[in-house]
User: What shape does this take?
Amino acid sequence: MLKINNLEVVYNDVVLVVRGISLEVPDAGIVALLGSNGAGKTTTLKAISKVLYSEEGKIEDGTIKFNEHLLNELSPEQIVRLGVCQVPEGRQVFDELTVDENLRIGAYTRKYSSDIRGDLKRIYDYFPVLAGRKDVLAVYLSGGEQQMIAIGRGLMSRPRLLMMDEPSLGLGPLVIAKIFEISKKVNREEDVSILLVEQNANLALNFSQYGYIMENGKIVLDGPAEKIMENEDIKEFYLGLTEVGKKKSYRNVKHYKRRKRWLS
Ligand SMILES: Nc1ncnc2c1ncn2[C@@H]1O[C@H](COP(=O)(O)OP(=O)(O)OP(=O)(O)O)[C@@H](O)[C@H]1O
Ligand SMILES: [Mg+2]
Assistant: This one.
């Protein structure tokens, strides 16, 4: 479904942030893109959705294909129309608009109001907590509820591929579990593929079928989620475990050495 080949992205014509990555998301699949701060995860999503253009970013090399379409030269709106939607990092809801208005904005590429009404109902069924707060300004909602708005707004464009950028950021475990449970339901019931960017590797790998680890603009490891979870380096560095169940301090981990090993 989504196929990225050898993608390179630069900012301001000089800074090469994504350095030749290849990545695939199959039909109705859930794929995790993991990595530490500044690895280039968000930039990769922005290159797909083309939000990149508004930030002096440019695709320097490589191809991004979605089904039979080459996405490289398309506009953000064309990308949404094709069924690819990015739920941004940090939620970015419109504070001064109500929950309902925020959700409706997600349908901006669509025409038929009866369809849109039907979809709103569907989203409120997924997120009943939002249904009870339709007319409340988004600014008054909790972080978890705002994340639900952000996902709901994305779903209003009827995506075939939903890209979520760190949906767990700053949220408590119960809300996170709820959000992941609903995302899985959307994936199952509507065959929406998901590309999930996360720093929380444990969470993401348990949710996904396949994972990619990104460091410094490159994919340093990929494989089925359960395989990645078994990888000793990943366990130690990303999951913070030495033996299953035993926590280890991040400070003891020689990050550099390990990264070098992955890259070699
Ligand atoms: N608009 C921009 N202009 C210039 N450099 C940028 C821009 N956005 C990001 N960068 C740089 O690109 C690199 C990758 O950033 P990116 O946001 O893609 O990382 P990330 O993996 O999403 O990190 P995090 O986990 O912290 O969100 C960083 O070094 C960052 O400083
Ligand atoms: Mg990011």
Remarks:
- The chain has two domains: 2-230, 231-264.
- The chain has eleven helices and ten strands.
- Residues 248-254 have pLDDT under 50 and may be disordered.
